[in-house]
């Protein structure tokens, strides 16, 4: 199975499981789960051939562990990153480390200094406990820059933090006073 096919399929799964399930007539339940048979037949109507084997390979080879298959093997979901309004993943609250990192592009810095970090289309702001990961995330939108987030201090002041199954840290927003350059 080629890396190209796995990458393309991963992008397609991110699109339908995080953002636009209706594009292939797929239903996600409130926790983001989609039936795998329905996913395969919805994709087929869209001219995309998925198989159970291909889906399982994407799940196991995903560098960021983006997807998970349910214990009974019938369903799949994205573990974070959603924008679709009908899904509300109930993340468990968790104590963050002293510092977390957010990767962004330099062209967003002026706005971030004014507004802090806001979720945009997604449900939460995404943070990482690794500088390298944050930098790679920032690179997607232009010249990357990594910001330090005073996560522990935020938590002490009542902000809530969550961690997705794949290690990505999430919070509702980060006011600018908790941000510093790396
Ligand atoms: C920026 C990927 C202007 C923010 C990654 C980011 C991640 C502001 C962009 C996950 C702003 C939103 C999420 C403000 C934030 N003014 N710009 N006030 N506040 N921004 O893609 O965090 O590979 O929705 O810095 O690994 O980049 O897809 O969020 O640049 O975990 O699995 O607005 O997506 O995961 O962009 O990335 P995004 P993100 P996958």
Automatic annotation (TrEMBL):
GO MF entries: transferase activity
Any Pfam family the entry gives: PTS_2-RNA
Keywords: NAD, Transferase
Record bears the keyword Transcription regulation: no
UniProt EC number: 2.7.1.-
Domain of life, per lineage: Bacteria
Gene3D superfamilies: 3.20.170.30, RNA 2'-phosphotransferase, Tpt1/KptA family, N-terminal domain
Family per record: Belongs to the KptA/TPT1 family.
Physiological role: Removes the 2'-phosphate from RNA via an intermediate in which the phosphate is ADP-ribosylated by NAD followed by a presumed transesterification to release the RNA and generate ADP-ribose 1''-2''-cyclic phosphate (APPR>P). May function as an ADP-ribosylase.
Protein name (Swiss-Prot/TrEMBL): Probable RNA 2'-phosphotransferase
Organism: Pseudomonas siliginis
């Amino acid at each position: 199975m080629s890396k190209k096919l796995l990458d393309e399929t991963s992008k397609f799964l991110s699109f339908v499981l995080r953002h636009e399930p209706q594009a292939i007539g797929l239903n996600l339940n409130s926790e983001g789960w989609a039936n795998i048979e329905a996913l395969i037949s919805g994709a087929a109507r869209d001219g995309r051939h998925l198989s159970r084997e291909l889906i399982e390979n994407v799940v196991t080879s995903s560098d960021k562990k983006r997807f998970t298959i349910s214990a009974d093997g019938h369903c799949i979901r994205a573990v974070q990153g959603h924008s679709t309004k009908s899904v509300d993943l109930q993340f468990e609250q968790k104590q963050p480390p002293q510092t977390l990192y957010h990767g962004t592009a330099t062209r967003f810095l002026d706005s971030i200094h004014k507004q802090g970090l806001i979720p945009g289309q997604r449900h939460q702001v995404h943070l990482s406990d690794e500088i390298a990961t944050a930098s790679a995330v920032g690179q997607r939108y232009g010249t990357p820059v990594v910001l330090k987030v005073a996560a522990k201090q935020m938590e002490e002041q009542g902000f809530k933090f969550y961690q997705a199954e794949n290690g990505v840290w999430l919070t509702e927003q980060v006011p600018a006073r908790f941000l510093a350059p790396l």
